[in-house]
Amino acid sequence: MKKIERLLNLISALLATERPLSRHQIREKIPGAYAENDESFRRTFERDKDELRALGLPISMEEVPGTDPPLKGYLIRRSDYEANHPVLDAEEIAALHLASNLIHLQGDDIDSPFHKMGGVLRDKAPAMGEIPREKLIDTCMHALIERLAILFSYKNDKREVNPIRLVFSGSNWYLIAYDKDRQAIRHFRLDRIEGQIELTNEKFETHPEASEITQEPPWRFGEEEKSVELKIDKSHAAWALETVGERAVYDELSDGSIILHEVVRDWKIFRSFILSFLGSAEVMKPPESRKAITDWLESMQ
Amino acid sequence: MSKMTSLERIKRLLSVIPWIESQKGPYIEEVASRFDYPQKELIEDLENVVFFVGVYPFTPDCLIEVFITEERVWVRYADWFRQPMKLNKKELTSLRAAGESLIEFSESLTGGIEEELGPLERAVTKLSTFEDGMENIVEIKLATPTKHLLGVRNSIQDKTVIQIEYLVGSRNELSTRKIEPEKIFTIGGNWYVDAYCKNSSAKKTFRVDRIKDFKTLDEMRETHSGGDSPSKDFFDLAEFPNAIIEIPVRDKPLIDGFPNIEVEEIPGEKVRLVCPVASEAWFKHLLVVLGENAEIQKVPEGIDGNIRSEAANEILKRYNA
């Protein structure tokens, strides 16, 4: 019997039964599927079971009633298996399919959920945003779905948190979570988590709505605040304003250049922004910021 | 599509069988297209596999019945396969995140929901009321629309030709171009547009935030051969020569704005950066950001070894003027 036929018959047997079937009962119920030799049968069966579970088949393991000593048996409960998702009409499925094609995580199987909903008759749209898959995404997603507390190391500190939401913003993934030691909600940048995330067995209840991840320029977040005036040439002014966003405060000069007034709380990040203009921008005020830039550049001469 | 493995075929068949049964004799062509199942393999699998699937004792009444005519297909007596498999929580979460992200993006782009998004809103609402009202656990915020993104998007929809004044990254100067936008997309927090550029008679990728001025021209689009999406090459970093730089671990946050750099930890509290150098202007920017603590181990051929001090001098000239 071919593998695909054996596996489909195995799924049929597990779905059609109301009582858990022991391994040996399964062999009897699918004649010709498995070897007579017990050891090679066991190996093939275990592999089949693992592969089907990896496909998402909810195979339960329960005690076979009336066996002494108790035997392990297997079945697929219809309530675990059969689709019960909301019924979407063809138009809604097509719209959702378009959205999933436009925006999805790199490496995600986009089509699989749509096959379960009866497939889609529509050309694939080119992706508008392929969201990078951080290596820790899957663990976080699992913890979020199962509501499990997690442990990880961040800024050289061990953190124990209840994950609330994963947010992709700008070009980074953030985990919004309740930090148990600090007893407050914190945002963690996923790529700054050191090493692996450890799942605990501890289930938690939901948390109140978390604060939003904002899309303000990153130099506005930090401790020490200063106001900086940056002159930007006409050629680069529009781009600068796009980068700062709608809350930019600036004066336009007669030659088309601008003076940007920025509140800076993280100087290093703002310095990188200034330097992205190379010779097309100049710090005007305050004098200590102007000096900080020239000192920085002079050290490289 | 390449040949599917047995497991992929099983996964697909678990959706195909209940659908065919529910449709009472659909056209094979439609089944193949809906489920992305190559027609020849589909017929083979239905005739030679599904036909032999059943439950004990495998008498005719316990086997799935498959009946195929030239164009249509019927499946009967597959009671245990009457429903497809459930959507799992991860699938539901991803669908909802994609739908909500597109709605939010569209709102921020046009200031309201477009009519065509009606079905998407309905779908997302249905998904969100499902699973005991599970909270939205994944959120995807696309990059904030830049000033000219709506104009570019409309040009794609209306098939117009536009003229842009564009800040060329590699030369750090403005240039005027006539382009025919074809597709917008976002990577690393920036919006890009793939377009046919009439000035260079080739497809090019432009960063939308570098478009300074924009006007729609009263011109028809030219017909030109399809060709591959230029963004494919645009982001094929392998073709750029690499520079290698070592910096102290504590300076790692400085490379945040440079998403394409590969980072490798090395002994001595340092990290090694492998940087695909797309242009000299980009490389200068990187070097002046990293500062004097960066040790330049290798520069691409044709680039002067003193490029960092040159770049620093160029900027200082302005301060000393």
Number of domains of chain A: 4
Distance between the termini of chain B: 63 Å
Main β sheet profile of chain B? 5 strands, antiparallel
Number of helices of chain A: 10
- Rounded mean pLDDT of chain B is 85
- How big is the Rg of chain A? 29 Å
Q: What series of H and E elements makes up the topology of chain A?
A: HEHHEEHHEHEHEEEEEEHEEHEH
Overall 3D shape of chain B = elongated
Structural class of chain A: alpha+beta
CATH architectural type of the largest domain in chain B: Roll
Record field, number of beta strands of chain B: 12
**Which two chains form the greatest contact, residue counts included?**
A-B, 105 and 111 residues
**In CATH's first tier, which class of the largest domain in chain B applies?**
Mainly Beta
Low-confidence stretches of chain B: none
Describe the strand arrangement of the main beta sheet of chain A, using strand numbers.
9-8-7-6-10
Biggest sheet character of chain A: 5 strands, antiparallel
Overall radius of gyration of chain B = 28 Å
Task: Give me some keywords for this one.
heterodimer, A: 301 residues, alpha+beta, Arc Repressor Mutant, subunit A, SH3 type barrels, five-stranded antiparallel beta sheet, four-stranded antiparallel beta sheet, 10 helices, 14 strands, elongated, B: 321 residues, 34% helix, 24% strand
Question: Can I get a quick summary?
Answer:
The complex is a heterodimer of chains A (301) and B (321). Chain A is of the alpha+beta class.
